[in-house]
Amino acid sequence: MAFWNRRRSIDAMLAPHDGPALKKTLGWPHLMALGVGAIVGTGILTLIGVGAGLAGPAVMISFALAGLVCACAALAYAELSTMMPAAGSAYTYSYAVLGELIAWIVGWSLILEYSLVVSAVAVGWSGYATGFLAGMGVELPAMLAAGPHVEGGLINLPAVFIIAVVTGLLLLGTRESATLNAVLVVIKIVALIAFVAIALPAFDAANFTPFMPNGFGAPALPFAEQITGQPVVQTGVMAAAAIIFFAFYGFDAISTAAEETKRPERDLAIGIVGSMVVCTALYLIVAAAAIGARPVATFAESPEPLALILREMGQGTAAQWIAVSAVVALPTVLLAFLFGQSRIFLGMARDGLLPRKLAKVSVRGVPAVVTIFTAIVVAGLAGVMRLDELASLANAGTLAAFAAVGVCLIVLRIRDPHRPRVFKAPLWWLVGAITIIGCIVFFFSLRASTQMWFVIWNAIGLVVYFGWSAWNSRLAKGEETAG
Q1: Domain count, the chain
Q2: Is the CB of residue 302 less than 8 Å from the CB of residue 215?
Q3: Structure pTM?
Q4: Exposed (0-12), middle (13-18) or buried (19+): which is 422, by Cβ within 10 Å?
Q5: Could you report the per-residue pLDDT of 57-109, keeping only the tens digit for each?
Q6: Which regions span the lipid bilayer (predicted)?
């Protein structure tokens, strides 16, 4: 079989592998908390301001569109993860269904996604942390509170600090970090409910007019900025949806915990679908309350929009508590994605597409080497880059992975319709189509520079693949039978 088309056997994938194994310590409550912790974070606490600036009050539609595509992707993930409960997420499914080359591209895109998500959330956390400290009378020097893109800034030290803290927590063990994550998730949900309760009495329907000031928008032509030589500024509902998409994904981190789940055939579907349902409802309610309480223009550019809205309402104490909850609970997103990133690396290293030394598991059942390596990389990015740049490029990697999962769902239903499926996505053809088409549309709604950098990233990845990985994979060396 040609190297670009060789596929892993699903049966071989599920067979016991050599070396230390990840410990099965997680149940569905842990997975639900992991999913909600990953999803509810910078997106609603910070990017709601960015999205509202692009779409105006019609950011509500942006949330709904992003939620629809992610809900379909979640159903596809639920079916595939229960069929193939192995570390690696979309990379693993692609390897078994679409072949090694596509799997490499998906895995390389996931590396981009998870790394930049962690960096972006750390930057978002930093905004709340510095605001909280300022409210306590502690002002960080400008050069240590932001990257060089801000006047007077040098390095975002709070962002680097929180990544280090979460990395240390992950190294303690999976169950220990998951338990603390569940506690922090409860704090975060309570804070958002409290925001809605305070903001709703100030609801003013006039704030929703004009509802769609920048129009619906349309995807830009690929690399339009480079072709025309003119800046292309994407605004409108679709541009906001493409950015807000960042606010919904995170459930895919649940699928990376498949090997550490006690009953993956049941718990993965509950965790993935359940976390999406909870978060979609919460997002729409919080967004409506925020816009109803204050005009979009007042919080569109704020790094801490919900806290700002409460301060504008004269609720200084409540604003401080929102900032506190963000400072305490946003690290749940970092934990979920750092966790997921290390498992993606682990899966690729086991398959020989990355150096196998990265697949080492510590005595605590943690892939310590890749966890520390990932933390160093994302801390460097968080220290110097802007939030919107990080979120936009992370979205590109996620869109590629989600589209691949939609394709895997359809292909596997057609190719192997009789394989046992514990969870079956309803209307699989429609779910797969919406996932694929939605991801393509969102990708071309991203800024042209993001599209360009995504292609450059994958071009680098192909050089690595053809130069090293294609010749060193387990399938290439005949260490595993192809499917």
Answers
A1: 1
A2: no
A3: 0.81
A4: middle
A5: 888 888 888 888 888 998 999 899 888 887 778 899 999 999 999 999 999 98
A6: 31-52, 58-78, 90-111, 153-173, 180-203, 232-251, 272-293, 318-340, 361-384, 390-414, 426-446, 452-471
